[in-house]
Amino acid sequence: MSQVKIGLFYGTDTGNTETVSNKIKERIDGKLGPDTVDVIEIYKKEADSFAPYQYIIIGMPTWYDGELQGDWETFLPKFEEVDFKNKKVAFFGLGDQYGYSFYFCDALGVFYDIAMKNGATVCGKWPTDGYEYDSAKAERDGVLVGLCLDIDNQDDLTEPRLDKWIPQVLSEFGLM
């Protein structure tokens, strides 16, 4: 039996989303075996880059007043072409819940809507407990569509949140 592969796609400007992506890879590889996760920067990728993966994790920051990170903004028209039928997708995002409390992790909501429209089964939804923001496109029916991290204001919660979220995602993926 061939090893399960998870495609972890991210975009970053400051390197923070890349750092979190690598932490996720390390934790998943530690649970499921080395090289389970392919970490892929979205820069200059095509819609068919998602095709080889049944299990997908997508990471992105939200900038300023709800702006998409540059590489994800460029990729947005291609993302709208991705066929997510029979794929399980989990989202994580970085945002600033105090400085931009009306736009906290908005990028997740934008990409969540497209993934759902294109047939994804979204895993890894996360409770709003412990966050202080006014509005978020990432919140639906009282839960976040993925894990939201605020390394500017709650960095001490990043590791514990990852430690809870990753087993949840792997369980919802059917891999644990």
Question: What do you see in this structure?
Answer:
- Helices cover 31% and strands 23% of the residues.
- The chain is of the alpha/beta class and 176 residues long.
- The longest helix is centred in the first third of the chain and has 17 residues, at 16-32.
- The model has no long low-confidence stretch (mean pLDDT 96).
Give short descriptive properties of this protein:
Rossmann fold; alpha/beta; seven-stranded mixed sheet; 4 helices; 176 residues
Topology, element by element:
Layout: E1 6-10, H1 16-32, E2 37-41, E3 55-63, E4 67-68, H2 70-79, E5 88-94, H3 106-117, E6 121-123, E7 126-127, E8 139-140, E9 143-144, E10 147-149, H4 158-173
Parallel strand pairs: 1-2, 1-3, 3-5, 5-6, 5-10
Antiparallel strand pairs: 3-4, 7-9, 8-9
Number of strands: 10
CATH topology: Rossmann fold
Number of domains: 1
Number of helices: 4
Helix content: 25-40%
- Give average pLDDT, whole number: 96
Output the helix-strand order.
EHEEEHEHEEEEEH
Shape: globular
Question: Outline of this structure?
Answer:
31% of the residues lie in helices and 23% in strands. The protein is of the alpha/beta class and 176 residues long. It has a single domain (6-173), classed as Flavodoxin domain (Rossmann fold, 3-Layer(aba) Sandwich), CATH 3.40.50.360.
